[in-house]
Write a structure and sequence with these properties.
Length: about 600
């Protein structure tokens, strides 16, 4: 009756429109300003987004300019000036986060929309672990200042205290507010979120510069041992006479904690950027079901991954211990690294190609729904791949063009080409997995939904009936039980009785249904676990000092010391971020399969 009534009203409107042309023309004239208003409805939102983006970009450029000025040998911009700038940025972010939390506390009765795809508990747990290691680094900075307080600026003590406070407050914000979809004070909040994004990016850049300076000093020390003493380089400032015996321990330990602090800030900036993109966005509440993570029948992937991880630790120890020895020992260590890299990259290429073949056989369409978090993941994967690709092609050019012939020359060539191929295949595998729609057989999960979804009107599993629906009275074909079926024949009477008897209990039968073993899923899960551990291995090596690009001498001979060092200072941080981000993306692939 309602539908017929709606059709009649539409028909009346149609006839009225056709019978009176003068009235329609008047209506059209009245609709013109309304259309203009509707077209300009998003204008303030786009303006705020554009202005806040420009603010963040200029903030990043100011930070980059100060870091570059601090890295120059004259050092007009001293370290305490840079730390003062970073401290001011963190204090502003702390004030904004405090304001945001207080506003949410005062409006706690109003419902805040949340983006369930923004992050997951395991990502926040991993960031919390990185934050703990960053706090340990701050404590080492404070301990180092205590020993050298007589000859260093007090800002070296203020900065780690503010950074530790900033880290604790930011982790709290990530756990409780990162999924919020902001709908109030949108313009102001856009500037606050983008300030937090670029503050973390500047802190990431500062950590990258400090780490690069540390590795460059180690590289020059090794070259001096070998006999290259006439190279001009920037020597670090002389250290003060430490008043405690722990100063050298604190200073040497900082270099091992830099990688964790760097990854912490870059990941936080990515999560905050997703929050910035979600400001004012309308969230689709139809997809609330959590993905079950099943780990049965996992054997080959974890075993091979553990073998790769164990061999990585051995390669790291041997490489670092042999770099300060004779030239033959250095060449043996570099050769061993390239052999290890060729083997592990070859296995990763085979694994990624196998996963792509499995996906191509199914011909399942891709999911094109809007998801800012997933889109950012893919953009970061491709963007961070550029660093390793740049290093690889420079190495290929150096190997082909050099006149030197060390024993690892063509191993470097094969390793560089495999780096390019491996990233190409792994990126395709991750994109194919994250954008893949579920198959028809996967849409109806045999597991029961959570209790919060049983009476949820917005749940995608709820049938299209008004009122409260108890799923215990739904038949498998998603239709209500009809009591008139019992009057048809004897067979239907018995069937209805069976249904009624089954509804008297708590329906334990569905919980006991076991999904048949899917070989394809098990292969994809093992591939994901293997690639996760391999990416962790390839992150550990350069993060803790195993960087043959500095030590093999081929690229430095072709491009020169200054150019090649600049390339490495740009490419290695991107490559490290790619490996860590690939671990996060591949874990999502594992859960999505």
């Amino acid at each position: 009756m309602v539908e017929h009534g709606a059709l009649d009203i539409m028909c009346l409107n149609k006839y009225r429109h056709s019978s009176s042309s003068s009235s329609s023309s008047e209506n059209d004239k009245k609709d013109i300003p309304k259309e203009k208003i509707s077209l300009s409805g998003d204008y303030p939102k786009k303006t705020a987004e554009f202005l806040s983006g420009q603010y963040g970009t200029n903030l990043l450029l100011v930070g980059a300019a100060m870091m570059l000025a601090n890295a120059y040998r004259v050092r007009i911009v001293k370290e305490e000036h840079l730390l003062s700038f970073l401290t001011c940025l963190m204090i502003l972010q702390l004030l904004w986060m405090l304001w945001y939390i207080l506003v949410r506390k005062t409006h706690k009765n109003s419902r805040t929309e949340r983006d369930v795809h923004a992050t997951s508990s395991w990502i926040r747990g991993g960031l919390s672990l990185l934050a703990v290691l960053s706090l340990i680094m701050d404590s080492f900075r404070i301990g180092y200042y205590v020993g050298d307080q007589s000859c260093v600026s007090a800002m070296l003590a203020v900065y780690p205290v503010i950074h530790a406070t900033h880290t604790i407050a930011q982790v709290h914000f990530l756990w409780f507010h990162i999924k919020d979809v902001i709908k109030s004070f949108e313009t102001f909040e856009r500037f606050g979120v983008i300030h937090a994004v670029f503050t973390n990016l500047i802190l990431w850049g500062s950590g990258v510069m400090s780490e690069a300076e540390h590795f460059l000093s180690n590289h020059m020390r090794r070259l001096t041992i070998v006999g290259y003493e006439n190279l001009t380089t920037v020597h670090p400032e002389s250290l003060c006479n430490c008043t405690t015996s722990a100063c050298s321990l604190f200073l040497s330990s900082l270099s091992y904690l830099y990688p964790f602090n760097i990854e912490y800030h870059i990941f936080v900036s990515a999560l905050l950027f997703v929050m910035w993109k979600n400001i004012g966005r309308s969230i689709d509440l139809a997809h609330k079901k959590k993905l079950p993570t099943k780990t049965q029948n996992l054997a080959v992937g974890p075993i091979m991954g553990l073998l790769a991880l164990g061999s990585t630790i051995g390669i790291l120890v041997v490489y670092i211990s042999n770099m300060d020895d004779s030239i033959s020992a250095r060449q043996s260590a570099i050769t061993m690294f390239y052999i290890y890299g060729i083997v592990i990259l070859a296995f990763m290429c085979v694994a990624g190609a196998s996963g792509l073949v499995i996906y191509r056989v199914d011909h399942v369409p891709l999911d094109t729904s809007k998801n800012p978090s997933r889109q950012l993941d893919i953009e970061l994967l491709f963007g961070s791949s550029i660093g390793a690709w740049l290093m690889s092609w420079c190495s290929v050019v150096a190997v082909v063009g050099t006149d030197s012939n060390p024993p690892y020359r063509w191993m470097n060539f094969a390793y560089s080409l495999l780096i390019v191929l491996e990233k190409y295949l792994q990126n395709l595998f991750i994109v194919e997995s994250l954008y893949r729609e579920k198959e028809e057989g996967e849409r109806e999960d045999p597991e029961l939904p959570s209790s919060s979804e049983i009476f949820s009107v917005s749940s995608s599993l709820a049938p299209p009936y008004n009122g409260i629906i108890n799923q215990g009275f739904d038949t498998p074909d998603r239709s209500c039980v009809n009591t008139e079926n019992r009057q048809d024949d004897n067979g239907q009477v018995h069937e209805s009785l069976d249904v009624r008897k089954s509804l008297e209990g708590p329906l334990p039968v569905e919980n006991n249904i076991e999904e048949p073993l899917n070989i394809k899923r098990q292969i994809l899960k093992n591939i994901s676990v293997f690639l996760i551990m391999c990416n962790m291995s390839l992150w550990i090596l350069p993060a803790f000092g195993c960087r043959p690009q500095y030590d093999n001498g081929l690229e430095e001979e072709i491009f020169g010391f200054n150019i090649w060092t600049t390339v490495l200072n740009i490419a290695i941080p991107l490559s490290l971020f790619y490996r860590m981000h690939s671990v996060a993306s591949l874990w999502e692939v594992f859960r999505h399969v």
